[in-house]
Amino acid sequence: MDARRAGQGPLQRAWLALERALDRIFPAGGNPLAHLGALACLLFAALLVSGIYLYVAFDTSVGGAWASIDTLSRQQPLAGGWLRSLHRYAADAFVLVTLLHLLREWVLGRYTGFRRYTWLTGVPLLVLAYVSGIGGFWLNWDQLGQYSAMASAEMLDALPLFAAPLTRNFIDPAAVDDRLFSLLVFIHLGVPLLLLFALWFHLQRISRPEVWPPRALALGFGGTLALLALAVPVHSQAPADLAVAPAALAYDWILLHLHPLAQAGGAGAAWALVAGVLGVLLLLPLRGGATPVAVAVVDPGNCNGCRRCVDDCPYSAITLEPHPNGRRGRQIAVVAADRCASCGICVGSCPSSTPFRSTQALVTGIDMPQWPIDALRQRLQQALARAGGARRIVVYGCDHGADLRALARDDVAGFSLACTGMLPPAFIEYALRGGAAGVVVATCREDACEFRLGARWTAQRLAREREPRLRDVVPAARLRLVQAGPGDESVLLAAVEAMAAGTAAAAATPSTGARAAR
Amino acid sequence: MKRIGIWTGQFLLYAAFAAAIALFSRWPAYQHLAPDQALVKLSFVHHGERLGECQEQTLEELAKLPPNMRAPTRCPRERSPVTVELDIDGVPAYRHVAQPSGLSRDGASAVYHRQEVAAGPHRIAVRLKDDPRSPGFDYVLEEDVELAAAQILVIDFDSADHRITLL
User: Residue A315 and residue A309: Cα distance in Å, rounded?
Assistant: First the structure.
């Protein structure tokens, strides 16, 4: 725990502080920084829908392309023009949000170990996003499209890929024919489809990927772009004329910033920059220093293949295979070591993890070797025993959330887990039966869980909506679930104080009542 | 945070995001060519002459070949590089030796060069050499041109008429 917290650099701390600040503006899990991937998917969907409409009205000939878009914008300002503007702004936003998504994962160090595959399959998406975006300008075939097409061709010609220079396709008006234009259309349709296919790989090792942001965020984000498209419509620039160099262009710096770079420093320098950036991104996961994580271990004697860990694993690291005991129909969980995040959520989901089992050593169906569930039970027993007659408050927290060391109170026994999702709900009842006055369970914010689903599963288990459920015998007054991420120690402390006050009042009430009865 | 604060904060952030997109999707304007400049583009794809002479094959040589390869003449595949020189107003502006493409160096040589010049009258001289056996340049063009601002002048090679052209 301490090492993990010490590993946070100033950049990471600053980013988390920014997210906490935005949490206050976007409450109830609507923080856009926590849903950047889903926002990118939303924008992609907007691009797809608006693009289909534009394609219906689009004349795919070189002579008619500009006129068809221009006519659409002028004759249907509220439908065609608005959708065309929305298409353009969504493309800009898509690239910005994708870059932010990449930046966030990098700042938070989420590119090594079990996340390596997801990171590496995400880098090509960035390239495809840019190619898709840049290719869209060509289809409009105005002066901006002409410049972008020519600049792209000049850049590609700097690579030893083509026998004949691509620039010759744009060298004079006669060179650009309908056949070439069909190819440009194909690029703008094909590359986004390729992006969609690559996205499937990107999400392969993430179970229950969030591809749609929360409703409030989707409405806010989509509404903003829709209003922008209405208020500041996009218009075509003058039609392309290959005999004349484009004049001053209203330039889209978000998508086309590479062209001026190539113009200023040469295509070779621009490619070197692109290769350098991509190289760094692709080599980042190989960077040393990432501590290998301990992999969840399955105990065949206690695993009956109930599938709960398979359903709860956030990274699809667990599958079911025939049980080695050979009994027909029985299965056993099998952990893919390279996908295991060492979060322990599977331990919390295992029905064998209940501390009420009478075995001397608590051996569960799936366990973390570095933090065995038996050790948690022993520590809990010791902490409650040390309290003597005093009633203590047990706090279960998370290594990635609020620091439990901030709870410097004698009446508190804190247990920081790899993720709160590692906590089997039966440990709450076990603590109460063992003499705890109350239990506080602290998770990270649901959309900021280090292991994606730990906070959500914990909340659902405690709400008795998900297996393993908290038993009904646990009184609501003696349990408090609080979302307290890193830096939210004051929130956690307030929850503990409220619990202490509540349990003290509850302890006083029966005696008062008894006196009154007498 | 109070509801009014939340709404205000969200409005400001959404507005800032929209403003950033609206602004940087069209501003600042970009002009890759200064207003008083024109552009000369030298571009062609041209096959240089073959380096070796074609040779008639004797009957004995043909007999040694598989039946489907018994062509009466045998020509070496490799082609000559193409050398091009461009002078603008008597000043050498560009010189390049374009190698033939292909693993056997039997493909076309390609040249693309973009040169910015001031708008106005210019004397353009282009020389092209594609045959190592001939002395000097095989094709030469010298012409006076009047270039308007932003005009693009394309120097090409017409493979059908075997001449350098200005478009």
Answer: 11
